[in-house]
Specification:
Structural class: alpha/beta
Mean pLDDT: 94
CATH topology of one domain: DHBP synthase
Bound molecules: zinc ion
Number of helices: 21
Low-confidence stretches: none
CATH class of one domain: Alpha Beta
Shape: globular
Largest sheet: 11 strands, mixed
Number of strands: 31
Distance between the termini: 68 Å
Strand content: 15-25%
Length: about 750
C-alpha cells in the first residue's frame, strides 16, 4: 500500500496594481485566504497591494481565481503578477503594516463611492448605532478622493484626522473580519462629524437639521447643502416659483439644472430611461445622466430635450428624501453664474448668501472640489461629458511614457492629466479658467496631483495647448524645464486614440469644435486628419474657411457668426426681415465681415451650427456654451428623417455655401424648422462620410465638442458602424484635451 504523503506546500508573492487601496481589498484577500486555510500576509504598498501566501498549490490557484473574479465592487485590478518565493513558515494569515517605501506612490486613490446597500440597511435600521447618521460608510463605500490629503491612503492623511475614533468604531476598524476594517472615514454619531442647519438665526443639529431642511425644501426654499465634493443648491423641482427664484438669484437664465430624484421609479416618472441609461444612473460613479424628458418641469431645462438626473449617493441625500424632501430636487452646483462650485464652508456662506435661504453644513471638510459628473448612454456605449466625481482621479489610459508628464489641457472646460509610470491620471473637471477661482483651482490641482504622485516638475515634460494666449499655456511655460505645445484638434483626435491604446493604427481623425488655435494661426474647428498617433496627424480636409467678425464675441452671438458665414453667399436676402428678423448686431457684423477689418478666418463647425441656429430663429445671445448648437439638435429631434442638404467636398474643402443657401431658401418658403434642422444634421453626417470615403478605409475617430451632439453621432454610427471611434472615458469636449496632449507627447 502506498503511503499518503503530506500535500506539497508552495509560497507565492503576488503584486496587484490598480484601484486596490481604500476599497476593502485587504479584508477581502484576508477572508479569502483564511477560508482556504492559507498562511502569510497581505499589505498595502506604494504600488498597490502585496500578498505573500503559503499553502497547497491548488488552494493558491483557487485564491488567485477568487481575487480576479470576486473583487470588491469599487476595485479595479490593473495587473496581477505572481512569483515563487522561499517558504517562510507562517502560522496564520494576517494583515501586515503598510510599507513605507521611498518609491513613488503609484497606488491609485479610489474615486468617491456612493453609499452601499449594507450601509443603507444600517442607516434605516432603528436598532443600528448608526441609524440616521449622515456620515455612515464602510470599506465598500463612502468618500475617497474628496477627503484625501496625501498617499498612502490612511486616516491621518484624510480630512477625518480631526475625529478620533470611539472604542466601538476603533474595534471595527481594527477587526479584519469587519466590513469597516481600515475604512478610513469610519465614524459614528458618538465620535464623528455631524450636520448643522443655519436658517437665519435658527440653528438645528443632526436629525433635526435634516428634518428641518426637508421641510424647508417642501415649502419652496432654496437650501445650500454640503455634499461630497462641494455644495449644491437645492429646491423643489416641481415648484416653478422656487426654480424661477433660483434662476434669478444665481444669474442663470437658461442653462439646464441637474435633478436628483428619490429613486429609480421617480426617475422613470420624469424621463425615458433606456436599459443603458439606467445602468449608468445606478453605476458606482453615480453621474448625472442625460435622458429624454417625459414631463414638463417649468424652468428646469428650457428648450432642451433632456433632463440631467442623478440618484442619491451620499447617505445625507437618502436621509433628506426619507425625511420628506420633495422627490425631485433641483441639485445644481452651488455657485454664482458659471463660477466653480463652492466647497469650503466660509466661502460658501459668503458667495451663496444672496442665493440660499438656508445652509445645511456638514463638519467633515472637503479636501478638494469634485463636481458631479455628467454622462449619457451613447450610440456606442456610455459617454462621459464631464469627468469628475466617481470617475476622477482614475487612470484613463496607459501610455508608453517612461518619464512623468504634466498635461494642462485647454482654457475652457479645463481638466489636467498627469502621467506617471505610463499611467494617465485624469483630474476632475476644473472649469473655465477665465474665472479666477477656476484658475486657482487649476493651479491647486496641479500641485495636488504632483504631490500626491510625488512628481517633481523639474523631471517632467510639461505639455500645453499651442494657443499663444491661453492662460493654461502661459502657466505651463512657467513650470518645469522641458515643454511641448500640442495643436488643439490633434489633441482631440489623440484623446480617443490614447483611450484605446491605438498608438500605431492609421486612422481618419475628425475634430469638430468651436474654437482652437490652428497651425496657421487661424481659428480651426472643422478639421479632418489622416495618420496615426505615432507618425503624426496631417490635416487632409477642412471646412471651407469663413470670416468671423469680431473674434470671441462671435462665439456668444449666433447672428454674428452667421454674418461671417453668410457673407460668403452670392445671393443673400435681407435677413433683418421676417422670417429671420435678425437684430442690428447682424447688420453691423455683416458690414465688418465684408470690410475685412477686425475679422478672423475660421473653419469652425461650432460656428456653422451657430449660423444655422440663427437662421432657424436663435437670434439672441447665448447664455451658456454650445446653447445654440444644442437647440438645433433639439429642433432636429422633433422631425422625422429629412433628405440631407448639399454639403459638397471640393478640393479638400467642405463647402458650406450650397448648404446655407438651401437653408435660407427653405426658411423663406416656410419649411418647418425641425425638418430644416434634421436635413442640416443629415448634411453634416453625409459630408463627413464623403470625406472619409475620399480618404480610405481606416477607422474613423470623431472628437471635439460638436460630437457631444448625440443625434450627429447616431447618424454617423448608422453609416460607419464599428469603424467609428468616439471618446468613452474622457469628454469629447475640451475636458478631454489634456489626455490627447499626453497621447501625442508620449510618442516622443
Ligand atoms: Zn458601505
Ligand atoms: Zn464612533
Amino acid at each position: 500500500m502506498k503511503e499518503a504523503s503530506a500535500p506539497a506546500i508552495e509560497a507565492r508573492r503576488i503584486c496587484i496594481t490598480g484601484v486596490v487601496q481604500g476599497v476593502g481589498f485587504r479584508p477581502f484577500v484576508y477572508r479569502l485566504a483564511r477560508a482556504r486555510g492559507l498562511r502569510g500576509w497581505v499589505r498595502n504598498a506604494h504600488s498597490g497591494v502585496e500578498i505573500q501566501v503559503e499553502g497547497p498549490p491548488e488552494a493558491i490557484r483557487n485564491l488567485l481565481d477568487a481575487i480576479a473574479h470576486q473583487a470588491p465592487v469599487a476595485a479595479r485590478v490593473a495587473s496581477l503578477a505572481e512569483s515563487p518565493v522561499a517558504i517562510d513558515g507562517f502560522e496564520e494569515f494576517f494583515i501586515a503594516p503598510t510599507v513605507e517605501s521611498a518609491r513613488r506612490p503609484t497606488a491609485r486613490i479610489s474615486p468617491d463611492l456612493p453609499a452601499c446597500d449594507d450601509c443603507l440597511r444600517e442607516l434605516f435600521d432603528p436598532n443600528d448605532r448608526r441609524f440616521g447618521y449622515p456620515y455612515i460608510n464602510c470599506t465598500n463605500c463612502g468618500p475617497r478622493y474628496s477627503i484625501v490629503l496625501g498617499l498612502p491612503y490612511d486616516r491621518p492623511q484624510t480630512t477625518m484626522h480631526d475625529w478620533p475614533m470611539c472604542d466601538r468604531c476603533a474595534a471595527e476598524y481594527h477587526d479584519p473580519a469587519d466590513r469597516r476594517f481600515h475604512a478610513q472615514p469610519v465614524a459614528c454619531p458618538v465620535c464623528g462629524p455631524s450636520y448643522e442647519l443655519e436658517a437665519g438665526k435658527r440653528r438645528e443639529q443632526g436629525d433635526a437639521a435634516i428634518a428641518a431642511t426637508a421641510a424647508l425644501l417642501r415649502e419652496g426654499a432654496i437650501v445650500a447643502i454640503k455634499g461630497i465634493g462641494g455644495y449644491h443648491l437645492a429646491c423643489d423641482a416641481r415648484s416653478a416659483d422656487a426654480v424661477a427664484a433660483l434662476r434669478e438669484r444665481k444669474y442663470r437664465k437658461e442653462r439646464p439644472f441637474a435633478l436628483m430624484v428619490r429613486d429609480l421609479e421617480t426617475a422613470r416618472s420624469i424621463v425615458s430611461l433606456s436599459p443603458d441609461a439606467s445602468r449608468l444612473l445606478t453605476s458606482v460613479q453615480r453621474p448625472i445622466v442625460l435622458a429624454p424628458s417625459t414631463c414638463v418641469l417649468p424652468g428646469v431645462a428650457p428648450a432642451n430635450r433632456d433632463y440631467g438626473i442623478m440618484l442619491p449617493y451620499a447617505p445625507l441625500h437618502y436621509l433628506l428624501f426619507s425625511a420628506g424632501a420633495p422627490s425631485v430636487l433641483v441639485m445644481t452646483s452651488a455657485n454664482r453664474s458659471s463660477e466653480p462650485i463652492a466647497y469650503r464652508d466660509g466661502d460658501a456662506r459668503e458667495r451663496l448668501a444672496q442665493i440660499a435661504d438656508a445652509f445645511l453644513i456638514g463638519e467633515r471638510k472637503i479636501a478638494r472640489r469634485v463636481d458631479d459628473s455628467i454622462a449619457m448612454a451613447g450610440a456606442g456605449g456610455p459617454v462621459v461629458l464631464r469627468h469628475s466625481r466617481g470617475y476622477a482621479p482614475q487612470v484613463v489610459a496607459t501610455l508608453p511614457a517612461h518619464r512623468p508628464m504634466l498635461c494642462v489641457g485647454a482654457d475652457l472646460k479645463n481638466a489636467v492629466t498627469l502621467v506617471v509610470d505610463g499611467q494617465a491620471f485624469a483630474s476632475q473637471h476644473i472649469g473655465d479658467l477665465e474665472h479666477y477661482a477656476a484658475y486657482e483651482s487649476f493651479r491647486e490641482t496641479i500641485d495636488d496631483f504632483c504631490s500626491m504622485y510625488e512628481v517633481s516638475l523639474d523631471d517632467a515634460l510639461v505639455v500645453y495647448d499651442a494657443h499663444p494666449q491661453y492662460v493654461s499655456s502661459e502657466y505651463a511655460r512657467s513650470l518645469g524645464r522641458r515643454h511641448r505645445a500640442v495643436q488643439h484638434h490633434r489633441a482631440h483626435v489623440a484623446s480617443v486614440l490614447a483611450e484605446r491604446g491605438a498608438f500605431d493604427t492609421p486612422v481618419i481623425g475628425i475634430a469638430f469644435d468651436g474654437t482652437g488655435y490652428g497651425d496657421d494661426g487661424t481659428i480651426w474647428g472643422g478639421e479632418i486628419f489622416t495618420g496615426s498617433l505615432r507618425d503624426g496627424l496631417t490635416r487632409a480636409i477642412a471646412l471651407l474657411p469663413a470670416v468671423l467678425p469680431g473674434g470671441d464675441a462671435a462665439a456668444r452671438h449666433p447672428v454674428q457668426a452667421a454674418a461671417g458665414f453668410l457673407s460668403a453667399l452670392d445671393d443673400l436676402p435681407d435677413l433683418t426681415a421676417p422670417p429671420f428678423a435678425f437684430p442690428d448686431r447682424y447688420v453691423k457684423a455683416l458690414r465688418v465681415a465684408r470690410s475685412g477689418v477686425r475679422t478672423f478666418v475660421t473653419t469652425s463647425v461650432g460656428r456653422l451650427f451657430d449660423t444655422v441656429a440663427a437662421l432657424l430663429g436663435f437670434t439672441r445671445a447665448i447664455t451658456y456654451e454650445a446653447q445654440a448648437a444644442t437647440w438645433v439638435e433639439y429642433l432636429a429631434r422633433s422631425s422625422g428623417d429629412a433628405r440631407p442638404y448639399p454639403f459638397p467636398l471640393c478640393d479638400g474643402k467642405l463647402d458650406f455655401r450650397p448648404l446655407l443657401q438651401a437653408i435660407v431658401t427653405d426658411r423663406q418658403r416656410g419649411r418647418d424648422v425641425g425638418e430644416i434642422a434634421r436635413a442640416f444634421h443629415g448634411a453634416v453626417a453625409a459630408a463627413v462620410c464623403a470625406a472619409v470615403g475620399a480618404l480610405g478605409a481606416q477607422p474613423v475617430v470623431a472628437s471635439g465638442g460638436v460630437f457631444q451632439n448625440a443625434l450627429l453621432v447616431e447618424m454617423l454610427s448608422e453609416r460607419l458602424g464599428a469603424r467609428l471611434w468616439v471618446n468613452q472615458r474622457v469628454p469629447a469636449n475640451d475636458g478631454g484635451i489634456s489626455l490627447g496632449q499626453a497621447g501625442i507627447a508620449a510618442m516622443g
